[in-house]
Amino acid sequence: MKDGYEVVAEGPSIDDYRRLREVAGLSPKSAEAAAAGLPNTRFAVVVKHDGRVVGMGRVIGDGGLFFQVVDIAVEPAHQGQGLGKAIVGRLVEHLKATAPAGAYVSLIADGEAHRLYAQFGFQPTAPASIGMAFVIR
Fold first, then answer.
1. Looking at the 3D structure of the chain, how many domains does it have?
2. For the residues of 102-129, what is the DSSP string, one character each?
3. Is the pTM of this model over 0.85?
């Protein structure tokens, strides 16, 4: 990794989480929702540049059967440095070391992000299955 950057196995603060989601183009989340959800993270990493959080990624799930990779976000000014790849790499490395055989690991790939995730063995589930979702309003 380039000088000044480090990948640290820790979760983002509520403020960093909310800021990174918004600047990276992900949907905004309230402070209340982040405060309720972040403590349930199974594993997380942040990327720090000169001590400041500029990227993040998390794994959520039930700890045995199902895991989901979420919140992969890098500040636009730091994109193109391989940080997304470093984040996903650490998450996948952790899952391979700790999740039981047969565990199902999923994610939702936005836009061209599927190219990044494919490097780590993620494959489209269609046509056998499709991802589906809804947002509580």
1. 1
2. T-EEE----GGGHHHHHTTT----TTT-
3. yes
